[in-house]
Write a structure and sequence with these properties.
binds 2-acetamido-2-deoxy-beta-D-glucopyranose; alpha+beta; six-stranded mixed β-sheet; binds fe (ii) ion; eight-stranded mixed β-sheet
Length: 468
């Protein structure tokens, strides 16, 4: 294994060098287009795969997953599914410093066309201590299963924290590789920022919701132990009038709860959390965002609330990218960009993570906010108050990899590559964060693309990676 890692690292280095030389020769303005050649797409894992196994025992909890349960990180939402009967909604939990405690939740079910869900439980545990390992048990009264998680440190400006970044995961063999690489990455992500498109059940006949269940079992090995922060993608909409299903996001909202009320949001599709030294704003590309809409009013207030003395790092998640130089989903994020980009520059957002395009891309810091219909000023310009835009929709999906890119590579695009992978955003203190993108073909420690982020509020010096 070590041998393979080394040779693929060398190969990657050569490819990056080649790509660099090529980009210099062919396109003077753009960044790097890596010509790394990956193996062919692998296909959806079959229903009898090891990762989809149902846990043994009567009414055993399955698809266990956790997410942050409040704004500060002192609460956790624990969710799971039972199949034979509803069973208990209780979560039993304890730490080395506290007695066993219980928290009660609720159970729900839903139907989608001719599919009926299992019993979906959601229980919020509150008043946890920061930076503490908790054990928890679900399935009380039938088959008990035990897991654990570690709460984040108390929110503060120099609190180090490592986020994982995964998008468009799906459930192909590539998806399993992405998750494995994330788990074995020595950077050790402590929570995942997930940028939408979870299970792709809607690509199966009648949106066969059995694939929501398999995805829940597949991802449990990570998300039962560390929170994944959810963003909605187009594959969560499940709007299917031909099946009589006209309530958007029905399976998603029944299965995945988020703490939206804690940030004054009125819908689970846009919300915010604070975690360590980061303020994370989650937006919905598939809910109304025009002027006078609930999401617009909320975001306008929300950006004012961010106190960089408390949380220096301002991170935004969304599904459809605003800056994307692939010929897939081209311009789909454009209308939201027109609405919100001036705010992102004004409030100096550090980084925007998106998915949707099944590939990887990182932008330079630039903005495109001067256009007013008649002045013709519509080319992105370098802007040190602007975020870096990263498309990380390369989780594995169940469709195809996006390989067709616009040529020449635009000047704002710093690095692009059609490979599956994940990234980590490793906050060191209020001024520095180390970002690395990991492609699945490399050894676990290899970063195929990386950058030191300088905080836009505390250290707003040029951190671009381009040669000029
Ligand atoms: C749902 O309907 C499809 C055909 O429309 C059928 O193949 C499938 O077996 C049905 N599933 C259930 C759970 O009844
Ligand atoms: C998924 O990955 C895990 C961990 O590497 C491995 O044990 C398992 O066999 C894989 N399953 C499939 C279906 O690829
Ligand atoms: C911002 O946070 C700092 C540090 O917690 C605090 O001292 C200050 O009062 C806050 N500012 C506002 C306007 O709330
Ligand atoms: C790439 O996309 C462009 C624009 O959509 C299209 O004209 C072209 O045929 C595509 N090329 C390939 C190889 O698919
Ligand atoms: C912040 O972290 C960076 C990178 O680890 C380090 O170089 C710098 O000295 C740190 N700043 C402070 C004030 O500790
Ligand atoms: Fe998508």
């Amino acid at each position: 294994m070590a041998k393979m890692g080394t040779s693929s690292r060398e190969a990657a280095a050569i490819v990056v060098m080649l790509g660099f030389v090529l980009s210099l020769a062919v396109v003077c303005n753009g960044g790097k287009t890596s010509s790394f050649v990956r193996k062919e797409k692998s296909g959806v894992m079959p229903l009898d795969s090891d990762v989809f196994k149902v846990p043994p025992g009567y009414n055993a909890p399955q698809q266990v997953h956790i997410t942050q349960g409040d704004q500060l990180g002192k609460a956790v939402i624990v969710s799971w599914v039972t199949v034979e009967e509803p069973g208990s909604n209780t979560v039993l939990y304890w730490s080395a410093y506290s007695k066993k405690q219980k928290s009660e939740g609720k159970v729900t079910t839903y139907k989608f066309y001719n599919y009926t869900s299992g019993y979906i439980h959601h229980t919020t545990i509150r008043n946890l201590k920061f930076n503490t390992k908790y054990y928890y048990v679900v399935g009380i009264g039938h088959t008990e299963r035990q897991f654990w998680f570690i709460t984040p440190p108390e929110v503060g400006p120099d609190v180090p924290y490592t986020f994982g970044l995964i998008g468009d995961l799906g459930q192909s063999f590539d998806s399993n590789k992405t998750l494995t690489h994330y788990e074995l990455n020595p950077q050790k992500g402590q929570a995942v920022l997930f940028v939408g498109d979870l299970c792709y059940a809607d690509t199966h006949p009648n949106h066969d919701n059995v694939w929501w269940d398999t995805w829940g079992r597949f991802t449990e090995r990570s998300v039962a132990y560390q929170p994944w922060i959810w963003t909605v993608g187009n594959h969560e909409i499940d709007f299917a009038p031909e099946l009589g299903e006209t309530k958007p996001f029905k399976p998603y909202t029944h299965r995945y709860h988020v703490p939206y009320k804690a940030s004054g949001s009125t819908a689970p599709f846009w919300y915010s959390i604070k975690r360590a030294s980061a303020y994370i704003i989650v937006l919905s590309s598939y809910s109304a965002y025009g002027k006078y809409t609930p999401q617009y009013f909320w975001l306008e207030q929300e950006l004012r609330k961010v106190n960089r003395s408390e949380t220096p790092w301002l991170i935004v998640l969304m599904h459809a990218p605003w800056y994307n130089s692939y010929n897939f989903h081209y311009l789909e994020g454009e209308t939201m960009r027109v609405m919100y980009e001036p705010w992102f520059v004004k409030y100096k957002v550090d980084v925007v993570f998106a998915g949707h395009v099944h590939a990887y891309e990182r932008s330079e810091r630039m903005s495109n906010v001067a256009y007013n219909i008649v002045n013709g000023i519509c080319i992105p310009v370098k802007d040190q108050s602007a975020p870096v835009y990263i498309t990380i929709g390369d989780g594995g999906n169940t469709e195809v990899l996006a390989t067709n890119m616009t040529e020449p590579q635009p000047a704002y695009s710093a690095y692009r590559e059609a490979s599956f992978g994940h990234a980590t955003f490793d906050i060191k203190n209020r001024t520095h964060a180390y970002y690395g993108w990991h492609r699945n073909q490399d050894g676990y420690a290899v970063t195929a693309d990386s950058m030191w982020f300088f905080n836009r509020y505390y250290h707003p010096v040029d951190d671009s990676t381009s040669a000029q």
